[in-house]
UniProtKB/TrEMBL annotation, chain A:
Protein name, as recorded: Phosphate transport system permease protein PstA
GO molecular function: phosphate transmembrane transporter activity
Record organism: Maritimibacter harenae
Record-linked CDD domains: TM_PBP2 (cd06261)
Gene name per UniProt: pstA
Pfam family, one: DUF3333
GO biological process: phosphate ion transmembrane transport
UniProtKB/TrEMBL annotation, chain B:
Domain annotation ABC transmembrane type-1: ranges: 260-478
Classification via SUPFAM superfamilies: MetI-like
Protein location: Cell inner membrane; Cell membrane
Protein name: Phosphate transport system permease protein
One cellular component (GO) term of this entry: plasma membrane
InterPro entries, alphabetized: MetI-like (IPR000515), MetI-like_sf (IPR035906), Phosphate_PstC (IPR011864), PstC_N (IPR022182)
Annotated PANTHER family: PHOSPHATE TRANSPORT SYSTEM PERMEASE, PHOSPHATE TRANSPORT SYSTEM PERMEASE PROTEIN
Membrane topology: Multi-pass membrane protein
Residue stretches spanning the membrane: 45-65, 162-180, 200-221, 259-285, 305-325, 337-357, 457-482
GO MF: phosphate transmembrane transporter activity
One GO biological process term: phosphate ion transport
Length: 442, 490
């Protein structure tokens, strides 16, 4: 204790709990500001999320509709023979087609001037399609047949607002004057929009045909890659985790493995692509662009993720389970495989699905092992060929489209992203359900 | 597919061995399984493991080694004269391999008989015509030495595969017989099986080491190869990046500095977006937000982390780029020439990194003990003063670690910069200019029909090495900081 005390005659500031002094005001304001910063940060994050998704949906939706020209067309036997007898056979077919179309329009009371070039700009090479059809089905000659012909991607763009009358520059792809015919055809109900099934089931088209491009073949490619990843990464990942979590002694070797796993988890994905290129293609001469190679690379990339989540799941099984099993005479191996592993399974599966989802969206390594730069024109011939035949994968296909010069492919790229995100969403929902349904709290 | 058949045969041997081993063990104790050392199934598993594991190891080793042996043997038989002036042995070998593949394909489609494909009398011109007709891709006319080498290549490969199939099946049978012979009542089958399983588990765990080894070796060897063709000093200190596409070697300028500058510039912009937003979001979520807000906002933010990078790349190229161009382009402020720029890529990458920073920081802030907050409140501090003066300093090492991890992600990110940052390598301070990064150049140098002998392709491995070293360094530093300072409060 000291004898000093506050001098009695010192002037005391008048304070009151009803009156807020300047310093408190300042501090309260700072408090409010600080909180507002936090809210703003969350708001900005969510704002970005919303912008991202609206831009994906807005730009991707056009890929799911296509405009088709539906028209009844009759080719008589005489016309068929006449066309086949000419030098330019397909041109003859399109002349017949144009004549018929003109008749239909006139019957509807519309008169629009158009010629063969206009039709080619709107519909592509009609003659070839017709000739192919009639050569395959000669019995249809003379009967009216309803043809659904897909319009060119520019006309698609005109219908979903990408191409406007004012913004259109005349080119060999589409003239502004052609749009008069398109409008007339739409009014006559000949051109209609429908759901674009070929986009979902089809394969990639060449660089000059954005309208015919589909994502189906690359979905199959991704599927085969995921099979490889699942077949390799799950058993290897679980085995490695069991060893590290249940058996590994504390020594240098174990430390080395642990350090390696945590480092691999942070290695940029493109480095795995370099590894795949050097080891699987340069050294082992596995086929380029094959889903098998893609799957192997993605396996190596996904392993750390699966190992980390599997170890967490194994760790969550309480030691009492192990002790009980050991107590009634099970060996350590039996304890792990009969008791610990089944209990940890939901957690392991959740981690595996999340790892697979990550692998499904990964693009960079696939670029290096040759899954871009070619046109994946078809489906594999069979199950086993699916692993080794060159194919694309969803993200690689999207990149291919995004890198093409024709901006009509951008729609397809966004549409592909919607499909990719739908797959990812399902996988994540499955993981959440698994976790909710089977997760046990000890 | 012979490999599939091989797998099925070995599996069948193992299955039969399982049944036989189990039955023999049971017979040896006259059906009374109490007299067995282990459960009956262990005797079966013992046989099955012995049939599969050695055979599998042999097959994998063979498949790895055979191409090396065959290549060196075939390459040895190519005379010096067969290699043109401006080419190399590796390129010729690639051609031989293509020709051999072409022959395989032609035989498969039936446009050439197996005997003709093998015969010495086959004319090079004739064969190349057949290959072209059957749709096998042959870029140029085959020459005599290449055709002979290709035939030899096919012959060696066929013999090798036959030999491998025979040996693998033999080994599998021997293993199974050995296991069956062991199957007697007093054999400690369980211990054997469990030891075997344990080795398999160790093998699986070692794959992580093998992967790292594979990465390091493939990077190191190709990088050494590159430095043999291109001086290392020019690579590390060159300020110009201008690979030539026409001829091989000579005229290319492959300096890494412009690429590194682009990489760091994009990463800095990304971190300038992600760190403040992510950090404040983490603070709000862990200190202020009610449970309900937290349970909604946190998963929503983490959705951003689950979106594939190709989506962000497209978002940068087609949405953010044009938007920025409208504001800063020649109609607006006039700073920007095209949609692809450092700012575009950096901004989008920043969005991608927000959840990365916020989740890690959130965990770290939550790990600061409540007692420290209570102490600060007890002294009369407001909540924000507590956060700024107590919680954040306590969590600082962890947060720095999180930022370093985010930086390493930003440096290694590929798709966003490939699509969003542009392709021109330049040293410039203007963030609205297009620049390119290490990862983008790895992609552009290695995609397409690259032959792996030219410095223009090999430089990608040197770039990969640079990238690997930088990200590894950042990760190790981050882990070191987190480990060293984190446990103070626990």
């Amino acid at each position: 204790m000291t004898d000093t005390s506050i001098p009695k005659d010192a002037p005391r500031a008048k304070t009151s709990i009803h009156q807020i002094d300047a310093l408190t005001k300042k501090r309260n304001a700072a408090e409010k500001r600080f909180k507002a910063y936090g809210m703003a940060a969350i708001g900005i994050g969510l704002f970005f999320l919303i912008v991202l998704f609206t831009s994906i949906i807005r730009s991707g939706a056009p890929a799911f509709t296509r405009t088709v020209l539906e028209v009844d067309f009759t080719l008589t036997q005489a016309q068929y023979e006449e066309a086949e007898g000419q030098l330019f056979k397909t041109a003859a077919y399109s002349d017949f087609f144009i004549a018929e179309l003109e008749e239909t329009l006139t019957a509807d009371g519309m008169s629009v001037e158009f010629d063969a070039d206009t039709i080619e700009r709107i519909l592509g090479k009609v003659g070839g399609t017709l000739r192919e059809y009639y050569r395959a089905n000669e019995d249809k000659l003379g009967e009216p047949v309803t043809f659904s012909l897909a319009t060119s991607s520019r006309v698609d763009g005109y219908f979903n607002g990408r191409v406007t009358r004012d913004g259109l520059e005349d080119s060999r792809f589409l003239m502004a004057a052609d749009l008069d015919l398109v409008d007339a055809l739409e009014e006559a109900g000949i051109i209609t929009s429908e759901f674009n099934w070929p986009f979902i089931t089809g394969a990639d088209s060449g660089v000059d045909n954005p309208g015919g491009a589909g994502i189906g073949a690359s979905v199959v490619g991704s599927f085969f890659m995921m099979l490889v990843v699942l077949a390799l990464a799950l058993p290897i990942g679980v085995a490695a985790s069991i060893y590290l979590e249940e058996f590994a002694p504390q020594n240098r070797f174990t430390d080395l493995i642990e350090v390696n796993i945590s480092n691999l988890a942070a290695v940029p994905s493109i480095v795995f692509g370099i590894l795949g290129l050097a080891v699987f293609i340069q050294f082992m001469h596995l086929p380029q662009s094959a889903p098998l190679v893609g799957g192997l690379v993605l396996t190596l990339m996904t392993l750390p993720t699966i190992i980390i989540s599997t170890r967490a799941a194994l760790k969550a099984v309480p030691p009492s389970i192990r002790e009980a099993a050991l107590g009634i005479g099970a060996s350590r191996m039996q304890t792990v495989f009969h008791h610990v592993l089944p209990l940890a399974m939901p957690g392991i599966l959740t981690g595996t699905i999340i790892g697979l989802a990550q692998a499904l969206g990964e693009t960079a390594p696939l670029l290096l092992i040759g899954m871009v730069g070619f046109v994946a024109r078809g489906y594999p011939d069979g199950f086993l060929q699916g692993f080794v035949e060159p194919n694309s994968a969803m993200p690689a296909q999207i990149y291919t489209w995004a890198a093409r010069a024709d901006s009509a492919f951008y729609d397809k790229a966004w549409g592909g992203i919607i499909i990719l995100l739908i797959f990812l969403m399902f996988m994540n929902i499955l993981a959440v359900i698994l976790r909710r349904r089977f997760e046990r709290r000890w | 597919m012979p490999i599939i058949w091989l797998v099925l045969i070995v599996a069948a041997i193992a299955g039969a061995g399982y049944v036989a081993g189990r039955a023999r063990a049971m017979r040896s104790v006259e059906g009374d399984h109490r007299k067995l050392h282990s459960l009956p199934s262990y005797y079966g598993w013992n046989v099955a493991l012995k049939a599969i594991v050695p055979a599998f190891i042999l097959a994998v080793a063979w498949l790895l080694i055979q191409p090396l042996v065959v290549s060196s043997s075939v390459s040895g038989m190519l005379p010096e004269g067969a290699i043109p002036e401006n080419s190399s042995r590796g390129l010729i070998m690639a051609e031989v391999r293509r020709a051999a593949d072409g022959l395989d394909m032609a035989v498969e489609t039936g446009s050439i008989s197996p005997e003709d494909a093998r015969s010495d009398a086959a004319e090079a011109a004739e064969i190349s015509q057949v290959l072209k007709d059957s749709g096998a891709v042959v870029t140029s006319e085959l020459t005599e030495p290449i055709l002979r080498a290709a035939q030899r290549y096919r012959a060696l490969n066929a013999t090798g595969h036959l030999l491998m199939t025979g040996l693998v099946i033999l080994l599998s049978v021997i293993g199974a017989l050995w296991g069956i012979r062991e199957s007697r009542g007093d054999f400690r089958a369980r211990n054997t099986v469990e030891n075997g399983l344990r080795s398999l588990l160790i093998g699986a765990a070692s794959i992580a080491i093998l992967t790292t080894l594979g990465i390091v070796l493939s990077l190191v060897f190709n990088t050494i190869e590159f430095f043999r063709l291109y001086p290392a000093a020019d690579f590390f200190f060159g300020t110009e990046w201008a690979p030539s596409f026409s001829g091989r070697g000579g005229s290319s300028e492959l300096g890494v500095l412009p690429l590194l500058w682009g990489t760091f510039y994009v990463s800095i912009v990304a971190l300038a977006v992600a760190v403040p937003i992510g950090l404040f979001a983490a603070i709000y979520l862990s200190e202020y937000a009610s449970k309900r807000v937290r349970s909604v906002a946190k998963p929503l933010l983490e959705v951003l982390a689950g979106i594939p990078t190709i989506v962000y790349g497209l978002f940068a190229l087609l949405t953010v780029g044009p938007l920025l161009l409208e504001i800063f382009g020649k109609d607006g402020l006039g700073w920007m020439q095209a949609g692809t720029a450092v700012m575009t890529a950096g901004l989008v990458m920043g969005i991608m990194l927000i959840p990365f920073v916020s989740s890690l920081s959130d965990d770290i802030i939550n790990a600061v003990p409540q007692a420290m907050r209570d102490g600060s409140y007890g002294l009369g501090a407001t909540q924000s003063e507590t956060i700024r003066q107590v919680v954040l300093p306590a969590a600082l090492p962890g947060i720095v670690g999180a930022i370093l991890l985010a930086a390493s992600r930003a440096i290694g990110e590929t798709m966003i910069v490939v699509l969003g940052a542009g392709a021109a390598a330049r040293l410039s301070l203007n963030p609205f200019e297009a620049m390119t990064t290490v990862t983008a150049k790895i992609v552009s140098q290695l995609t397409g029909d690259a032959d792996f002998a030219s410095p223009e392709a090999l430089v990608a491995f040197a770039l990969g090495m640079t990238l690997f070293v930088i990200t590894l360094g950042l990760n190790v530093l981050a882990l070191f900081i987190v480990r060293k300072y984190r446990e103070q409060y626990e």
